[in-house]
Amino acid sequence: MENRLINRALAVFFLCVLSWPALGQQASYRLNPGDVLNISVWKEEGMQRDTLVLPDGMISFPLAGHLMAAGKTPQEVQEALVARIRDYIPDPQITVTVLRTAGDKIYVVGQVNRPGEFPVSHRIDVVQALSLAGGLTPFGDENDIKILRRKADGTQEAIPFDYSAVKRGKSLETNIQLESGDVVVVPD
Questions:
Q1: Is the confidence at residue 25, as pLDDT, over 70?
Q2: Domain co-membership, 152 together with 118
Q3: CATH number, domain at 161?
Q4: Mean pLDDT of the chain, nearest integer
Q5: Does the N-terminal or the C-terminal CB of the chain have fewer CB atoms within 10 Å?
Q6: Taking 80 as the threshold, does the pLDDT of residue 7 lie above it?
Q7: Which residues contact 146 (CB under 8 A, 6 or more apart)?
Q8: Are residues 129 and 87 in the same domain?
């Protein structure tokens, strides 16, 4: 009997340890349109559902109505839901879990072998994005690649990337991690 209890305790411990990185990634992940969330209110029948983050970034949930989810972490959405539902359910215990990150996409265009949209489930850098796109064509200009990024105010910035320098081990700081919606442009 005692051995079974110890084995169970060890199993729970290792399960927690193994899931810790995933919990950390979810805590820092910023939601995007197209992501699917599972939202549940503990001990409230009918208050669990899968919810799509709509193209405008909004979600809707019973008693809470519509609220902005895009750009927020699951924890921030959970806190907003608690604040809205508190008037109807005292001390609500709400869980927000990311089921699918379909909205996390980057784009690679121009002189690459497979240009297009690439859904990513984790952060990738510019070199990794170019690899997903099959690498540069013989006509791609390695020295003048740009990353187009939309800022919060709607304006766009162009971030330079010199692939030829990075290949030689130089300017490694320019191999930035891409954010959802970034466009890598490889000119000819």
A1: no
A2: yes
A3: 3.10.560.10
A4: 86
A5: N
A6: no
A7: 158, 159, 160, 161, 184, 185, 187
A8: no
